[in-house]
Amino acid sequence: MPKILLINPNASEATTAMMADIAQRAAPAQWQILPRTAGKGPPMIVNAAELAQAALEVEDCWRDAPSDCAGTIISAFGDPGLERLRALSRMPVVGIAEASMLEAASGGRRFGVATVTPDLVEPIAGRVAAIGLTHLYTGIRLTEGDPRALSGDAPALEAALAQAVQRCVDEDGAQAVIIGGGPLGQAAIALAERLHLPVIAPIPAAVRRLAQLMG
């Protein structure tokens, strides 16, 4: 039974449990998801400084994990520590931003991101550029208000993200929309199921990407 390390760079055990449940449901039956949570930092990463600090926590989590893991998922949308872990690990490492962007852009689709964190707009655009998908990127649409407060209100979060998704499509011409955030995982699943639009939930996308890399 392959062990798959899932690292939550957000310092919230509750969020980690949610992410691990989503990943396990999306994973092949024989996979065992091993969740790990950042030892310090905010419960939800909302700016570039927190994202940079999270990269150090990601490496610590990876070093403390069992050595027989067959792959790793970094479950924060800025993919903190991704390049570092790829340099260290003999096994595949995927980030939820990269995985969901590759899936959203498949077949040459134009894609956007709906999210709650205005201070991460530039880092997200940076991930798009690093992957080489800027020519297909239609930009970000944001919800209003404090991202941490909104994320604590599931119905309001889902409604606000649904509006942002619609704007990505109607105003920006996106053909697929990613829900941009690991802590938004449950809302992403709900929207992918109920909206008649191509909504990409990033945690399942990362599971699918890792499965491809593992063969």
Automatic annotation (TrEMBL):
InterPro entries: Asp/Glu/hydantoin_racemase, Hydantoin_racemase-like, Iso_Racemase_Enz_sf. GO terms for molecular function: amino-acid racemase activity. Gene3D superfamilies: 3.40.50.12500. It holds the Pfam family Asp_Glu_race. Transmembrane segments: none annotated. PANTHER family: PROTEIN DCG1. Belongs to the HyuE racemase family. This is Aspartate/glutamate racemase family protein. It comes from Comamonas koreensis.
